[in-house]
Write a structure and sequence with these properties.
Mean pLDDT: 93
Number of strands: 9
Largest sheet: 5 strands, parallel
CATH architecture of the largest domain: 3-Layer(aba) Sandwich
Low-confidence stretches: none
Radius of gyration: 22 Å
Strand content: 5-15%
Number of domains: 2
Number of helices: 12
CATH superfamily of the largest domain: Aspartate/ornithine carbamoyltransferase
CATH topology of the largest domain: Rossmann fold
CATH class of the largest domain: Alpha Beta
Distance between the termini: 21 Å
Order of helices and strands: HEHEHEHEHEHEHEEHHEHHH
Strand order of the largest sheet: 7-6-5-8-9
């Protein structure tokens, strides 16, 4: 007996969308996701989150370890009535015994969303090319878009009085990380003034700046790339990140020598930014390196609000990317299959 795929998701979705980078979305689409985040966060506070991912699964591929990404996606799926499945390199044959294309095809037949936290952007892009369910970039060497949705929402929660999102001046102090690139793209898309402050050798490459400048033509934002830490003056948001990451261990000493102490976010730097400035960090943080413990634990730090909003972002992304494809059976269809299956079970 030959049967078509029994996947709960339509394998030929005309409106299939992936979330690989914020540049794939309009400003309005990103604003819609942020609005959805707000509603879901309020619903969670009231313990009244609608089961919008009920009976569905997100397959979570991890080439890199994570605290916030795994916990937030797995918890988001559960709160919404679904399930998160952790897949480490030891659990699957990604790009080894099994091609990237086949991995995407297989997981698409069993899960409703794929989230991939990978070493190379080509991996998550390849999964998206061959998957028939939404693919979410949980981090790659170039971008960290899910983190940035949490960051944008955190900025909205802590807006200075009288300011809108587009009025903000955001300073990223340190290395040109995947968080830096994603923030640069998202902030300029929303019309903010984005500053990357770091030593010349580790500043945002021209390709990133070109993308930001293209955003600015439409949004009216601004971009500053400089090694001058005095540029933090008047900034609403100061953001730090690690000075070295996986694969950069051999550069550790050179990097620390280059960045420290000039680019360490201290209470003095926060004071220079202004009394209403806010500190953010995607975590994990190497306190006393890219920022001091006093700043992390200080009254203007919102890093743990930011961390919690990873959950807020993942809930919204799971719903946003799947809500158009949910197939809701009628009560008659449910009753038909229930009676049919129970009838068989009663005879065996």
């Amino acid at each position: 007996m030959k049967m078509p795929s029994a996947s709960a998701t339509d394998l030929n979705k005309p409106e299939l969308k992936h979330f690989l980078k914020t540049q794939d979305y309009t400003r309005q689409q990103l604003a819609d996701i942020l609005e959805l985040m707000g509603m879901l966060k309020e619903a969670r506070k009231a313990n009244a989150v609608p089961q919008l991912f009920k009976g569905k699964s997100v397959g979570m591929i991890f080439e890199q370890p994570s605290t916030r990404t795994r916990i937030s996606f797995e918890t988001a799926a559960t709160i919404l009535g679904g399930h998160g499945l952790f897949l480490s390199p030891k659990d699957i044959h990604l790009g080894a015994k099994e091609s990237l294309a086949d991995t995407g095809r297989v997981i698409s037949r069993m899960c409703d969303v794929i989230m991939a936290r990978v070493d190379d952007h080509k991996t998550v892009a390849g999964l998206a090319e061959h998957s028939t369910v939404p693919v979410i970039n949980g981090l790659c060497d170039w971008l960290h878009p899910t983190q940035i949705m949490a960051d944008l929402f955190t900025m909205m929660e802590h807006l200075p009085e009288g300011k809108k999102l587009e009025d903000l001046t955001v300073a990223f102090v340190g290395d040109a990380t995947n968080v830096c690139s994603s923030l640069m793209f998202a902030c300029t898309k929303f019309g903010m003034h984005f500053k990357h402050i770091g030593p010349e050798k580790y500043q945002a490459p021209q390709m990133w700046q070109d993308i930001a400048l293209e955003n600015i033509e439409t949004s009216g934002g601004k971009l500053t790339v400089t090694d001058n830490v005095d540029e933090v003056e008047g900034c609403d948001i100061l953001i730090a990140d690690s000075f070295y990451w996986f694969g950069q261990e051999a550069e550790k000493e050179e990097r620390l020598t280059t960045f420290m102490p000039k680019y360490v976010v201290t209470e003095e730097m926060m004071a220079k930014a202004g009394e209403n400035s806010v500190f953010m960090h995607c975590l994990p943080a190497n306190d006393q390196r890219e920022c001091t413990r006093e700043v992390m634990d200080g009254p203007r730090s919102v890093i743990f609000d930011e961390a919690e909003n990873r959950l807020t972002a993942q809930m919204a992304l799971l719903v946003y990317l799947t809500h158009k494809h949910i197939q809701k059976p009628s009560e008659e269809t449910v009753a038909f299959h229930k009676d049919r299956i129970e009838g068989l079970l009663s005879r065996i």
